[in-house]
Amino acid sequence: MKIIHYLEAEARKYPSDQAKEATGRVVIGQSDGAEKFCMRVFEIGKGGMTGLHAHDWEHEVFVHSGKGAVRRGETWIPLSAGSVVFIQGNEEHQLKNTGDSPFVFVCVIPSGAPEL
């Protein structure tokens, strides 16, 4: 069993040249013996965003705090603490911070996908 506060995991720059003010932390992954899923916590600062992207695997997002939006096609859908998003494989998407405080969300992906 692993029990930590997410801030104990190393913060790494979001892996995209398009991203701005975005970091991610692998809080549960392969190095912990997780065989089915990887859990990451992302933080996007004021005015920041992830890169616009798509990939083969699905993932699930739970918004922990802050205000943001997810891009679906050409539409931005507002998100806030408690929002849940399911993104299917190969669905183009992007997340951004729309508030004044950090936008923090948990993202779960299947094992085998790049952890960060």
Description:
The chain is mainly beta and 116 residues long. It has a single domain (9-44, 51-110), classed as Jelly Rolls, CATH 2.60.120.10. Helices cover 0% and strands 52% of the residues. The protein has no helices and 9 strands. The protein has strands spanning 12-13, 20-28, 37-49, 59-65, 67-72, 75-80, 84-87, 93-97, 103-110. The strands form 2 sheets. The chain has a 6-stranded antiparallel β-sheet, with no helix packed on it. A 3-stranded antiparallel β-sheet has the order 6-5-8, with no helix packed on it. It is globular. The model has no long low-confidence stretch (mean pLDDT 96).
List keywords for this structure.
single chain, 116 residues, mainly beta, 6-stranded antiparallel sheet, 3-stranded antiparallel sheet, 9 strands, globular
Assembly annotation: single chain
Helix content: under 10%
Termini distance? 22 Å
Chain-averaged pLDDT: 96
Total strand count, please?
Answer: 9
* Strand line-up of the largest beta sheet: 1-2-3-9-4-7
At the first level of CATH, the class is Mainly Beta
CATH H level, superfamily name: Jelly Rolls
The largest sheet, given as strand count, sense and whether it forms a barrel, is: 6 strands, antiparallel
Uncertain residue ranges:
none
- Name the overall outline: globular
Overall tally of domains: 1
% residues in beta strands: over 45%
CATH level-two architecture: Sandwich
Order of helices and strands: EEEEEEEEE
Helical stretch count? 0
The helix-and-strand class reads: mainly beta
